[in-house]
Amino acid sequence: MTASPVFLNQPKAFWAYVRSISQAVGYTARGKGQIKVPRIEEMAEALDHLGLDRTRLLRADGATEVAQTLSAYFDYRARTLNTLVEPRLMNRVQARALFGELRAQLSPKIPIPMNKQKGAKKEPAYMTALVNMLVEANARGRDCDYDPRALTTFTREGAPLRTLSRRVDGAFPGVVNPVAVWEIKEYYHTKTFGSRVADGVYETLLDGMELEELRASEDVNVLHYLIVDDHYTWWESGVSEDCRSGSYLLMRQTAFRHSF
């Protein structure tokens, strides 16, 4: 999915409201397994609870413009996660079947990556392989770095301009002056929702902030994609943990022109 233009360029303060309110009212509708849409009154009460100024959202003459934008965002977030994202998340069996189907159809020339598991759990990294096969099939012979072993660097007139803090999972056409980079987070063998998922959120948030600064300061625009999978990890466990993962990913996506 691509970023919503309505929320794409909201100021940093807007996302501070989103996080603070979400923390106070909760991310999910209890017992329903669905993302929550707080009412404006609930948002104002959340500011009260945090010792903040509720009149920023709700005054005697009605809701402020900020409150109305927040309400629209929370509705968009819930609809997108509930109806677009959740049905598209796969489990290991589904991912393996799709991998086999696509591999037979595309006959990829690139190596198939393996996961980092051991023993019976060691098998192809299904989502990474799917991404790589699709990129190869649509690159039409152009170069692509499917497994970067170096930091992504942007240059100008032969000199370094910016170098990202961490390695990405893929760069097109390469890690020097790419037009697109991506991060893949597949957790088909994960049984708990915890630090690995949080790491995935924060790592891609860091990448997004660095690329946003590059765009704002140097007018260099790079497409940044986040690909995640495993229904149990990102949805079932995520919702039971108040769905901070999906909510943060969607905030990141709308704020920084990213996709997942």
Question: Describe it for me?
Answer:
- It is a single chain.
- The chain has 260 residues and is an alpha/beta fold.
- The chain has two domains: 12-88, no CATH class; 92-259, no CATH class.
- The chain is built from eight helices and ten strands.
- Strand 8 (180-186), helix 6 (195-218) and strand 9 form a beta-alpha-beta unit.
- Helix 1 (12-25) crosses helix 2 (40-49), helix 4 (92-106) packs parallel to helix 5 (126-139) and helix 6 (195-218) packs parallel to helix 8.
Secondary structure tally, helices: 8
* Overall body shape: globular
Between the first and last Cα atoms, what is the distance in angstroms? 6 Å
Query: Mean pLDDT, nearest integer?
Result: 88
Q: Strand order across the biggest sheet?
A: 7-8-9-10
Q: What are the salient characteristics of this protein?
A:
2 domains; alpha/beta; four-stranded mixed β-sheet; 260 residues; two-stranded antiparallel sheet; disordered C terminus
